[in-house]
Design goal:
16% strand, two-stranded parallel ribbon, alpha+beta, 5 helices
C-alpha cells in the first residue's frame, strides 16, 4: 500500500493563506500570521498555488475544478451551493436556505464546518443586515469582500 501524498501551498497576503492537500484533494485551508513551509510536488498543487496567487492579487478565480473534503453530507449540500457563488458576488444565508429547503441557521452551521475557506467561498455569504460570521474572523471576511469589490462600505 502506498503512502498518501501530502502537499502544502503557501501564499503571502495581508493574512497569509495555507492550503493542504492529500492525494490531490484539498483537506484543509486556513489563514495565518506566520510563514509556513511549502511542499508542492504535483500539477494539482502547482495549479492551486497559481490560482491562489491570482486570487490574492484581486483577480477573479474559479476554484470549482479542485476536489475538497466535506465534513458531513448536509455540509456538502450547503457548501456545494456556496461554491456556485461567483467572484465578487454575495448571497444571504436566507437565499441559500430557501434553495436547499432548510433554515438560515442550518446554513450558518454548515458554513462554520467549512474546512477550506476561500476554495469554498463561505465569505460570500452574508446576513440580511450585515456581514454575518466567518471562521477566520469578520475582519478577514471584510478584507476578502473588499478585495472582491462588491460589498459597499455601508454594509461593512
Amino acid at each position: 500500500m502506498r503512502e498518501p501524498t501530502f502537499e502544502r501551498v503557501f501564499v503571502e497576503w495581508k493574512r497569509n493563506f495555507v492550503a493542504e492537500l492529500e492525494d490531490g484533494v484539498i483537506v484543509r485551508a486556513y489563514f495565518t500570521d506566520g510563514v509556513v513551509e511549502e511542499k508542492v510536488e504535483t500539477e494539482t498543487a502547482e495549479t492551486l498555488k497559481e490560482r491562489l496567487t491570482d486570487y490574492f492579487s484581486a483577480k477573479p478565480v474559479d476554484f470549482s475544478e479542485f476536489r475538497v473534503v466535506y465534513p458531513t453530507r448536509f455540509a456538502e449540500r450547503v457548501l456545494s451551493e456556496v461554491r456556485k457563488i461567483p467572484y465578487g458576488e454575495v448571497e444571504t444565508y436566507s437565499s441559500i436556505a430557501g434553495r436547499l429547503s432548510t433554515s438560515p441557521r442550518a446554513v450558518g452551521v454548515a458554513l462554520r464546518m467549512n474546512l477550506v475557506p476561500v476554495i469554498v467561498p463561505c465569505h460570500r455569504v452574508v446576513a440580511k443586515g450585515g456581514l454575518g460570521g466567518f471562521s477566520s474572523g469578520v475582519e478577514v471576511k471584510k478584507l476578502l469582500l473588499e478585495m472582491e469589490s462588491k460589498v459597499s462600505q455601508e454594509t461593512l
